[in-house]
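Incident log, structure service

09:12 report received: a user says their structure output differs between two submissions of the same chain.
09:20 pulled the input from the user's history:
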Amino acid sequence: MTVQEVSMLQVIRMKDSAKNAAEIAKYLNRTDSANVLYALRKLEKLGLIEKSPGPPRETTYQVTEQGREITDRYAAKRRDLLLSLIDRMSQSGSLFEGVNRTLWLMSGLYEQVARTVSVMSYLSDDTGQPTVLKLDEKARKTARAPRGQADAAPRTRKAAG
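09:34 re-ran on a clean worker, output below:
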């Protein structure tokens, strides 16, 4: 079986509910319906899925017992490989801690930038348009001011309208 067919089988089994071809394609981010239908026919011929009777547009697919066994084996293998990789990562202690610290720092920086950008509407130029330049100037002034003075500066908002 190809990787795409295994992925399709996993999607069909997901939540143990039958899905139509459009849902399957959507989950797999596929727009080539002809290839999706071809793969579904292949999985059906292999006895891994079965389709419901009815009009073509209402046809749904679900895994067979054989398909369930295969997806269970893939899930077990995936779990074993993942746990093995996590175990190896935890054994390399300081490297993992450094990566974790860097990701935590980047997350904090992202949140700070998001907060800063959200106040840009209060830092607009004469045209009333938000400007990064004024935001940048304010940040530099705050950085140069002795401790305590930056907080003491009066905060003003430009009146709306």
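09:41 both user submissions now match this output. Likely a transient worker issue. Closing.
09:42 reviewer note: The two ends are 64 Å apart (CA to CA). The chain has seven helices and three strands.
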